[in-house]
Design goal:
Layout lengths: L1 E4 L3 H9 L5 E7 L5 E6 L5 H11 L7 E5 L12 H8 L5 E2 L6 H14 L17 H15 L5 H7 L2 H14 L3
Parallel strand pairs: 3-4
Antiparallel strand pairs: 1-2, 2-3, 4-5
Helix pairs in contact: 1-2, 4-5, 4-7
Amino acid sequence: MYTEVRLHPPLEKKLSAEGDVGDYAAVQAQHEGELVLIVASNRLTPLDVRRLLGDAGTATVPDAYAVVPALEREKSESLALGWAEKLLTGRPLYRLCPPETEVQRLLIEVWERSLGIDGIGIDDDFIELGGDSVAAVEILTETEKRVGTEVGVDELFECGTVRELSSRIEGKAGSGDA
């Protein structure tokens, strides 16, 4: 069950100013307390929304977000919460998970610089973030310098996320394969 809540004013201002955002709402899960931003747009991708959230500053970022074609509202202009619950069930929620380890923190710094995206989380997918073979080589070269562990291009594409790649790197370091 969700309750509609207000967003921080800087994020509301950012979303209102974005021409491709048709509507948006923030809902809070009653049991978990998770704040979910729902953005209605036929043009924005999850990566576009991620960039908007990154530009708004970390203090305003929700726990997760979803991109939908449209929002359904009641006559009072409040979000139709039953509809929102049904809409979010089974839909991928994109989460902004911060780093949990030093290796994850270093990888996020490298990924953000190489991909030109702020606010990358440990579960964001390299390909979905716009990563390609050129960015992969840049990321892997910088990772080897900063972390001291060699990682192959195939490993980056196989792992796909900072969480999985850091686990692979930490496993290599622990086994002496670094």
